[in-house]
Every structure is written in structure tokens, then in C-alpha cells.
Specification:
The chain is α/β, with parallel strands linked by helices and about 325 residues long. The protein has 8 helices and 18 strands. It binds flavin-adenine dinucleotide.
Length: about 325
């Protein structure tokens, strides 16, 4: 027999809270989504994401289970978001860093080495820029603002009551699903911030169809094509809670990276320079922590994987609420 419908308050309308609210409402629960900011996405890390769904590339520095879960995340996004750009992604390196490309290939899966000719077919504008690249065909991407707006509309359509400009504790609900991002440090002392800076530029001079990552000794640099000539250049990875303006050093590194991918980026207009802080646990693995005798579930620590894993986390939490199904993402030991 299915579990009875419950009254659930989701705190936080970043990407984790939106997916939780959607899946729980679709499972038949009465869901209220409470967001502290007055305007949608005014104070969330999610708006700053690239957004790449890159489980194969992320596997370079993540535990193997994240690759498998991330691949499931890509599948869930593909079935849900019609605007998803499922064109794969590329990794390149300057000729002097060819060894970096080989090292990256050894540490990741789901790719194949393409030569200059095939690279020119995939991305004509990279013709003559690189002699080889790694192609990750299963990866996908989407612009963060459009994806978040789509999610919010779907959450509304699923019947979720949404309250902006409120920061209540969810009192009165049967269950609180806490997705407050870094603000949940008041309850999760292990949570830390990892600053990420990114630049938005616009140009008609370069046309790319998929994210291009440039291997670089200090910064994981990438250029992600959004829409209408808009590109997101990211991103720094700095152990800091500071969300303030971008530094000159970071701007130089990011813009230098874009220039190395294609010199015509030097003619682009800079539209925005910004930074946000990713919430992360010590092992950089996101999870749902069940606390307060099962009345509160903290979903947090998404680090670089918030979009990638939000649907997988939401599915795992919904299964736990339904029948107590345990999973590697739902931790009940602190119950
Ligand atoms: C530069 C950059 C690039 C990134 N690129 C990628 C990428 O390519 N792919 C990917 O998967 N991930 C990427 N990420 C990571 C991703 O953005 C994060 O993992 C994700 O945004 C975390 O989502 P969240 O919902 O936990 O937190 P947030 O998005 O920060 O949302 C938390 C929300 O809770 C609200 N809140 C706070 N306190 C309260 C309260 N008391 N009551 C109600 N609401 C409250 C906040 O206002 C906020 O809206 C990137 C991050 C950065 C910074």
C-alpha cells in the first residue's frame, strides 16, 4: 500500500530545493516551497553554475559512485528538460601540455581521442587550434538562468505552494526538507564554502556547440556556449566563504583561458563578472541527512555537482519518504 500523502515544507529554492519540491509533489505530497530571497534566484549559488552535466569529466577528482549517479542524473535531465543541449563536451590542451591530455584520459572514462580532422567536424571554429582533443559524447549542458526558470514553472505546475521572501523553519509541516545551501551551516557544522568565479561574455565571432574544457595547471578552465552568442567562462575553485567581487587574478586567468581556446574571444563583450559559494562537505559528496527522528532531512553539499545530482538526490529522498528505502545518498545514522 502506498505511504499516505504528507505535508512537506522544502526550504530553499536553489536547484536542490526545486528538484525536491517537484518530485515530492509529483509523488502526491502536499508541498510548500519557502525561499528567503524576495526574488527568485536572487541569492543562490545555482544561478552562477555553468551548467555542465559532466559525470565523466568530473570523475577525474570524484569517487567512482558519483560517475554512476551522475550518469543517472544526465538521464533524468534528458527526460525532463527539452531544451537540454546533449552535444557532449570536449577537453583540449595547449601543444606544450599534451601530457596533461594523456593524464586526463587515463583518469576518466566515457571519452575518445579525436584528431584535428574530427575536431574540426565537431567544432569547425576550433579548426587548426588543437591537434587533438578528448570527446565525451554522453555529456550535456544548459544555461543556468533558463533551466532554473523552467524548473520553477514546473514546480508551480505540479501544485507546489511557493513563498518568496520568507525564512520560516517549516513549523507545522509533517516533514521539512532543508535545502538552504550554505545557510544550513547553523545545523551542519561540516559544511564549508568553495568560491567559484565566472564571467559572461557575448560574441558572434566564435560559434561553439558544446563546452570546451582547457587543461590548465592551476584553474579548471572551461568555455560553455549558452544561447545567442553568450558564453560562460568558468570557474575558479577557491577554499573560501567569500562571495564578494571577482579578483583581477581570477579575471586574468579566466579570460586568458578563453583566449587560449580561441583568440577571437578577445573581441567579445564582457557582460558580467560574478562569484558564488558552493556548499560542500569534507569529501565533496552531496547527501541527504535524516535528522530529528525523521522529521527533517538536510539535502546539501552539492559542491560542483548540484545540477548533475539534484534529480538523483530528489529521487532518493522521495524513495526514503515512501518506504524508508536506504541508498548511498540518504544517511540515517544521525536520526
Ligand atoms: C561558478 C560555478 C559553476 C558551477 N558549475 C556547475 C556545473 O557546471 N554543473 C553542476 O552540476 N554544478 C555546478 N555548480 C555547482 C552548483 O551551482 C551548486 O552545487 C548548487 O547551486 C547548489 O545548490 P543548492 O540548491 O544546494 O544551493 P543554492 O543554489 O545556494 O540554494 C539555496 C537557497 O536557499 C535559500 N535560503 C537560505 N536560507 C534560507 C532560509 N532560512 N529559508 C528559505 N530559504 C533559504 C537561499 O536564498 C538560496 O536560494 C557550479 C557552481 C559555481 C559557483
Amino acid at each position: 500500500m502506498p505511504a499516505p500523502s504528507r505535508s512537506i515544507t522544502v526550504l530553499g529554492a536553489g536547484i536542490l530545493g526545486l528538484w525536491q519540491a517537484l518530485i515530492l509533489a509529483r509523488a502526491g505530497h502536499r508541498v510548500r516551497l519557502v525561499e528567503a530571497s524576495e526574488e527568485p534566484f536572487a541569492d543562490c549559488a545555482s544561478l552562477y553554475a555553468a551548467v555542465m552535466l559532466a559525470p565523466d569529466r568530473e570523475a577525474e577528482n570524484a569517487p567512482p559512485m558519483l560517475r554512476q549517479l551522475g550518469r543517472e542524473g544526465v538521464g533524468l535531465w534528458k527526460g525532463f528538460y527539452p531544451q537540454l543541449k546533449a552535444n557532449g563536451s570536449l577537453v583540449v590542451a595547449a601543444a606544450r601540455d599534451r601530457g596533461e591530455l594523456d593524464r586526463f584520459a587515463r583518469r576518466t572514462q566515457g571519452h575518445r581521442l579525436v584528431d584535428a580532422g574530427e575536431l574540426a567536424n565537431l567544432e569547425p571554429d576550433l579548426h587548426d587550434r588543437f591537434t587533438a582533443a578528448l570527446y565525451f559524447p554522453e555529456e550535456a549542458h544548459m544555461p543556468a538562468p533558463a533551466a532554473l526558470a523552467f524548473m520553477l514553472a514546473e514546480v508551480q505546475r505540479a501544485g507546489v505552494e511557493i513563498a518568496f521572501g520568507q525564512a520560516d523553519a517549516g513549523d507545522g509541516a509533517d516533514l521539512v526538507v532543508d535545502c538552504r545551501g550554505l545557510a544550513a551551516r547553523d545545523a551542519l557544522p561540516d559544511l564549508r564554502g568553495v568560491r567559484g568565479e565566472r564571467i559572461l561574455i557575448r560574441t558572434r565571432e566564435v560559434k561553439l556547440r558544446r563546452p570546451v574544457q582547457l587543461l590548465h595547471p592551476r584553474v579548471p578552465l572551461y568555455v560553455v556556449p549558452w544561447d545567442e552568442g553568450l558564453y560562460m567562462i568558468g570557474a575558479t575553485l577557491i577554499e573560501s566563504d567569500e562571495a564578494g567581487p571577482m579578483t583581477v587574478r581570477s579575471a586574468l586567468e579566466l579570460l586568458g583561458g578563453a583566449y587560449a581556446v580561441h583568440p577571437a574571444f578577445s573581441e567579445a563583450e564582457i557582460l558580467d563578472l560574478g562569484a558564488a559559494v558552493r556548499p560542500a562537505f569534507p569529501d565533496n559528496v552531496p547527501r541527504a541527512l535524516v535528522r530529528d527522528s525523521g522529521r527533517r532531512i538536510y539535502v546539501n553539499g552539492a559542491y560542483r555537482h548540484g545540477f548533475l545530482l539534484a534529480p538523483v538526490l530528489a529521487r532518493a529522498v522521495a524513495a526514503y519518504i515512501e518506504d524508508g528505502t536506504a541508498s548511498e545518498l540518504v544517511v540515517t545514522s544521525g536520526l
